[in-house]
Amino acid sequence: MKKMCYLALCAALVFTSLSVADIPAVEELVSIGDKHTESAPGASRKAFGQAEAVEKIAEKKLAAEMPARAERKAQAPAAEGAQRIEVYVQWACMIADNDIHGYSQGAENATANHPYTGSREGPDFDCSSLVYHALDHAGFPLIAAWQKNPDYYERYQGRQVTGDADTIWPDMQRIGGFTRYSWEAVKNDLRRGDILCYPEAHVAIYIGNGKTVEARGVNNPRGGAWRTGDQGGEIDYYDAYGRSWTEVYRYTGAR
Q1: Omega cis (within 30) before 150
Q2: Neighbours of 40 (CB within 10 A)
Q3: Measured between alpha carbons, how far is 8 from 104 in angstroms, rounded to an integer?
Q4: Torsion angle in degrees (nearest 10) through CA of 87, 90, 92, 93
């Protein structure tokens, strides 16, 4: 009978939320259960009393843990979102810190006045492709969303891997989880990872302390050149304020 008791106890530890620390309490209840079932005929009644005692302990422990479990469950999506935001911010900063990455809109878009070379999908990037790749690197399927966008074919016949500054928000709507704000509404409460956008022309990633990381272009305030790689401030850190931003896209949670 004692062997049956410990088998029941082991099963409780495995299949309930009980831990080894609960063994003394379980044994005490089992002892009480034994006293209540000593007069019962046969071993099965006693085993039932022991199992019932273990179940009571498990129920009590589970009830005590429910508020903390609910809080952890509520916090989990926010924590995961914050981690993913940090991943794309750090990825973009890594690109800016390595001069093998410069600004280009791709050789296919070159003109006499803008003789771009190489690719805009790496190692060089333009403003929007940097944002698309950064978010995609963090697990936000923005590139796949772009390739379902009608503009993917209408503008580029399916040849441009990532979209433009004015397609980022429609593509974010496709993947969900992002909220659009006007610049005026949130300019005094920017958060790390916010996407700052002037859809007609430019987009950047806000990294905090009034700074962005962005592919600014060859004709930026710090110099540059049309060849591949960064010959100045082509992909670099800039002041977020005093610019032409009109919209801010912020990750607020998966739908």
Answers
A1: no
A2: 12
A3: 68
A4: 180
Instruction: Scan for tokens 């006693």, then name that residue.
Output: 46
Distance CA 136, CA 121 (A): 12
Asked whether the CA dihedral 98, 103, 105, 108 is positive or negative, the reply is negative
- Give the span between the Cα atoms of 253 and 121, in whole angstroms: 27
Please state, in angstroms and rounded to a whole number, the distance separating the CA atoms of residues 182 and 6: 64
Using an 8 Å Cβ cutoff, are 213 and 89 in contact? yes
127's tokens = 């403003």
pTM score? 0.70
What are the pLDDT tens digits along the chain (255 aa)? 544 555 454 555 444 555 556 555 555 544 555 555 555 555 556 555 665 666 677 667 666 766 655 554 444 556 788 999 999 999 999 999 999 999 999 998 899 999 999 899 999 999 999 999 999 999 999 999 999 999 999 998 888 999 999 999 999 999 999 999 999 999 999 999 999 999 999 999 999 999 999 999 988 888 888 889 999 899 999 999 999 999 999 999 865
The DSSP secondary-structure symbol of 243 reads S
Long-range contacts of 216-220 (CB under 8 A, 24+ apart): 216/103, 216/127, 217/103, 217/126, 217/127, 218/102, 218/103, 218/114, 220/103
Residue 120 CB neighbour total at 10 angstroms = 25
